[in-house]
C-alpha cells in the first residue's frame, strides 16, 4: 500500500527481476563483477594478430600504437595449389583491379613497391641478379637494393608494417588495414616451371600492369624531343617567373636532384628532367610520387596538390 515492498510482481510487473527483488535493492546489492566479466569486451590491442582471427577491431590500428618494422621478404611454399608464373600474373592483376576498401592511392603505392620486389625475385630466380659490388652501380635487380627501394616507397606513403611482412598486412596513416595474400606479395619457393622463358611471364605482368602507358610515354617522348630541339635553337622563350624549383628524392639512394620546370609542364616532363639531371641510363624510367600517391603523368604537378617547397619522390624503375 504505501510501502516500497508492495509493488506488483509477475510477468506484467514494471519491475524486472521477478518477485521479491526491488529495482533499488538490485542496484545497491549487485555483487562486483570480476575483471573481464563486464558487458564491454576488453580490447585487443595486439597489432600482430592475424586479420583472420575473427576480430573486426583488427581492421583499424589504434591511435598512438603504430608499430612499424623494416620491410622483409616473405618466403612461403604452396601446399594446396601448383602456382605458375602465368597464374600469379593473372591473380595479381585481378587482385589490385578489384580493391574496393581502403584508399586507392595506398593500394597503388603498395602495388608499385611490390613490382620492385617482383622484378628482383625474377632476376634472382633466373640468375640475373646484379649486386652493388659488380662495378655496374646500384641495380634494382639486386635483392638488397630492391628491398631498400620498396621500403622507401612505403615510407614515402607513410605505410607501416607491424611485422615487417607485407603478407601479414599493412596500415596507412589513418589506421586503415590492408590485407595482402602471400601469393600477391611474393612467388612461392615451389613455383612450377613455366613453359618457355620465365622472362615472358614477367614481361607479360609488367605489360598488364602498365597497359596503355608505353604508348602515351612514347608520344610524350616525341614531344619532349621536339621541345629540346626548339630550346637548343633558341626558339623557345622561357619565362623565369613561370618556372618552379623542385627537389626530387630518388628511390635508388642517390643524392637529391634539384630541377626547374614550368608551372604547366606535365609530370612526365618533370620525370624526364630529373632523369637527365641524375644521369640515369636509358634503360631506367622514373615515376613521380607525392604524399603517398603516384602522380598522373599527363597532368602538371600543381594540379595534383603539390605545394611549393615540398620534396617529391622519384621512383626509379627498369623500363
Give an overview of the whole structure.
- The protein has 319 residues and is an alpha+beta fold.
- It is built from 8 helices and 7 strands; from the N terminus they run ααααββαααββαβββ.
- The strands form 2 sheets. A 5-stranded mixed sheet has the order 4-3-7-5-6, with helices on both faces. Strands 1-2 form a two-stranded antiparallel sheet.
- A hairpin with a 2-residue loop joins strand 5 and strand 6 (293-294).
- Helix 3 (104-125) runs antiparallel to helix 6.
Q: What's the quick description here?
A:
With 319 residues, the protein is of the alpha+beta class. The protein is built from eight helices and seven strands. The protein is 32% helix and 11% strand.
| Lateral arrangement of strands in the main beta sheet | 4-3-7-5-6
Low-confidence stretches: 17-30, 33-58, 196-216
Average pLDDT taken over every residue: 74
Number of beta strands: 7
Order of helices and strands: HHHHEEHHHEEHEEE
Shape: globular
Could you tell me the strand content as a percent range? 5-15%
Percent of residues in helices comes to: 25-40%
Rg from Cα: 29 Å
Largest sheet, in brief, is: 5 strands, mixed
Tally of DSSP helical segments: 8
How far apart are the termini?
A: 92 Å
Pfam families: UBD, ubiquitin
Organism: Lasiosphaeria hispida
Protein name: Ubiquitin-like domain-containing protein
Amino acid at each position: 500500500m504505501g510501502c516500497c515492498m508492495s509493488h506488483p510482481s509477475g510477468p506484467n510487473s514494471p519491475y524486472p527481476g521477478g518477485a521479491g527483488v526491488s529495482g533499488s535493492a538490485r542496484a545497491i546489492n549487485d555483487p562486483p563483477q570480476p575483471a573481464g566479466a563486464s558487458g564491454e569486451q576488453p580490447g585487443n590491442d595486439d597489432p600482430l594478430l592475424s586479420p583472420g582471427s575473427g576480430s573486426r577491431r583488427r581492421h583499424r590500428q589504434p591511435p598512438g600504437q603504430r608499430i612499424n618494422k623494416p620491410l622483409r621478404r616473405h618466403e612461403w611454399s604452396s601446399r594446396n595449389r601448383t602456382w605458375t608464373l602465368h597464374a600469379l600474373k593473372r591473380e595479381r592483376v585481378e587482385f589490385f583491379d578489384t580493391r574496393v576498401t581502403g584508399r586507392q592511392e595506398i593500394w597503388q603505392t603498395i602495388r608499385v613497391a611490390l613490382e620492385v620486389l617482383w622484378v628482383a625475385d625474377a632476376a634472382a630466380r633466373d640468375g640475373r641478379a646484379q649486386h652493388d659490388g659488380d662495378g655496374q652501380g646500384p641495380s634494382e635487380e639486386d635483392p638488397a637494393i630492391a628491398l631498400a627501394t620498396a621500403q622507401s616507397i612505403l615510407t614515402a606513403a607513410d605505410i607501416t608494417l607491424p611485422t615487417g611482412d607485407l603478407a601479414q598486412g599493412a596500415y596507412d596513416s589513418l589506421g586503415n588495414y590492408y590485407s595482402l595474400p602471400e601469393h600477391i606479395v611474393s612467388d612461392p619457393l615451389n613455383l612450377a616451371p613455366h613453359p618457355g622463358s620465365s622472362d615472358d611471364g614477367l614481361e607479360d605482368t609488367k605489360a598488364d600492369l602498365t597497359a596503355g602507358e608505353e604508348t602515351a610515354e612514347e608520344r610524350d617522348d616525341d614531344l619532349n624531343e621536339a621541345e629540346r630541339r626548339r630550346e637548343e635553337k633558341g626558339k623557345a622563350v622561357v619565362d623565369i617567373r613561370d618556372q618552379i624549383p623542385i627537389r626530387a628524392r630518388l628511390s635508388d639512394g642517390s643524392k637529391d636532384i634539384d630541377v626547374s620546370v614550368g608551372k604547366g609542364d606535365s609530370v612526365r616532363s618533370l620525370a624526364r628532367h630529373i632523369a637527365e639531371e641524375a644521369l640515369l641510363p636509358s634503360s631506367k624510367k622514373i615515376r613521380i610520387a607525392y604524399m603517398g600517391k603516384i602522380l598522373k603523368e599527363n597532368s602538371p604537378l600543381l594540379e595534383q596538390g603539390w605545394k611549393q617547397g615540398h620534396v617529391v619522390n622519384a621512383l626509379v624503375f627498369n623500363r
